[in-house]
Write a structure and sequence with these properties.
With 435 residues, this protein is an alpha/beta fold. It is built from 14 helices and 20 strands. Bound molecules: S-adenosyl-L-homocysteine and iron/sulfur cluster (SF4).
């Protein structure tokens, strides 16, 4: 059937702020739009709809989301038929104020409502697009673009968090833990590999607290790694973020024995002062954390540890901070994501005085970053003269199994595994030549 010339597929632009979970949410929420015929727009200018997946874990992250929504006012005013959707953690925490402040936002979907997103977006779109552009031909599922997967794909296995770390807003914006059924996870893994993924990153707030029923038995995180490891064509398996409490023998032996599981453990520490950890309600001591790292290193030879640290938590003294620096020198993580404490309304610690001044927080962050830069450089430089396996994610860029970035000159296809002779390193990246 001939279509009138003005009919063109609608286009969606997605912007994910914050963690990998936010990126994975944006991808999941694109699916019902894709099945209505939306294709991907690289920039807002060519988009009929924009989906922003927001973060609120620190105030700075929420401020970024708010300023982005504000900056899209002219985009929306240029064509009121355009659809602006704001989702995720900041939408959950500050949804009402976003609706009030930015009345041109069409749909605000908090992180807890992601399961209802297909229904919510249907209502919003039915009220918006004219029938012509919503012709059956233009949005029949089979006409939806079959999206190619990135070489390294995210796969959410659980939502929410049952912890109550005193500084953290995640449990209140994402709710209690919910685990996806094993079958769904394995099916999604197979689909991602069929669409081009070579590596899968399992995602969850405490990803290793995963548990589910499968084939009449209980499946824990280690069992899930073993099941995932059998996915044909899957070369690498990663996960983020495990909680130290659930790092146990079952998990470590699965890591050691599964061919695809990479030799990397991102294990957030937050602080190495036993007193501060207690106030943070992290339910481990520095000594217990060290035991887990030692167990991981002995189970998985060559495993690389990375971590998260918060500086300037209420009451943190110079001595507490020094304990963290000394502990990091002992544990030697290869890199760390370091943050200044940010009080989040409604959390337990937000009711305590935020008594470490901005200057002191900045000073501690600077000293911590300098230590971590040294440790990162040492870890990178130790590769020089060796040959490592790198999975090419973009032309000339990829990562080692241990999670180090690598760059090289010369043409390689994304998805290709290359042997890289390492010749040098920048601050964060290995440099090499294809061996
Ligand atoms: N579930 C993960 C962390 C998720 S949040 C875990 O428990 O390890 C990601 C990181 O943000 C945390 O590890 C912490 O370092 C940081 N973070 C969370 N809340 C914060 C706050 N209020 N201020 C500063 N950093 C925070
Ligand atoms: Fe936040 Fe703690 Fe849950 Fe991590 S474990 S998401 S830091 S409450």
């Amino acid at each position: 059937m001939d279509q009138p010339a003005e009919i063109r597929p609608m286009k969606l632009h997605t912007i994910a702020l914050g963690c990998q979970m936010s990126e994975a949410d944006a991808e999941e929420m694109s699916a019902p739009l894709a099945s209505r015929g939306f294709s991907r727009a690289e920039s807002p200018d060519e988009a009929d709809a924009i989906l922003i997946s927001t973060c609120t874990v620190r105030q700075h992250a929420e401020d970024r989301a708010i300023s982005l929504i504000g900056s899209l006012k002219p985009w929306k005013a240029a064509d009121p038929n355009r659809v602006l959707i704001v989702s995720g953690c900041a939408a959950e925490r500050a949804g009402d104020s976003i609706r009030r402040k930015f009345p041109y936002v069409d749909l605000v979907v908090g992180a807890k409502s992601i399961a209802r997103f297909p229904e919510l977006v249907r209502e919003a779109l039915d009220a918006r697009f004219d029938a012509l552009r919503e012709q059956r031909e233009s949005f029949a599922p089979e006409a939806a673009p079959t999206e190619a997967s990135p070489v390294s794909a995210y796969l959410t296995i659980m939502r929410g968090c049952n912890y109550s770390c005193s500084y953290c807003i995640v449990p209140s914006v994402r709710g209690r833990e919910l685990y996806r059924p094993v079958e769904d996870i394995l099916n999604e893994a197979r689909a991602k590999v069929a669409a081009g993924a070579k590596e899968i990153m399992l995602l969850g707030q405490t990803v290793n607290s995963y548990e589910s029923e499968h084939d009449g038995g209980k499946v824990g995180f280690g069992d899930l790694l073993r099941l995932m490891d059998q996915t044909p064509g899957l070369e690498r398996l990663r996960f983020m973020s495990p909680h130290p409490y659930y790092v146990d023998e079952r998990m470590l032996s699965a890591m050691a024995e599964c061919r695809a599981v990479c030799e990397h453990l991102h294990l957030p520490l937050q602080s190495a002062s036993a007193r501060v950890l207690k106030l943070m309600r992290r339910n481990y001591t520095p000594a217990a954390y060290l035991d887990k790292v030692r167990a991981a290193r002995s189970a998985v030879p060559g495993i690389v540890i990375s971590t998260d640290i918060i500086v300037g938590f209420p009451t943190e003294t110079e001595d507490d901070f020094q304990e963290t620096l000394d502990f990091l020198k002992e544990v030697r993580p290869a890199w760390a994501y370091c943050f200044k404490y940010s009080p989040r309304e409604g959390t337990r610690s937000a009711s305590w005085p935020d008594d470490v001044s901005r200057e002191v927080k900045e000073d501690r962050l600077g000293r911590l970053n300098r230590l971590m830069d040294e440790l990162t450089s040492k870890a990178l430089n130790a590769h020089i003269g060796r040959t490592v396996e790198v999975l090419c994610e973009e032309p000339g860029f990829g990562r080692t199994r241990q999670g180090f970035n690598a760059k090289w000159a010369g043409v390689t296809r994304p998805g290709e595994a290359v042997s890289l002779a390492v010749t040098g390193a920048t601050k964060r990246t290995l440099l090499g030549e294809i061996a």
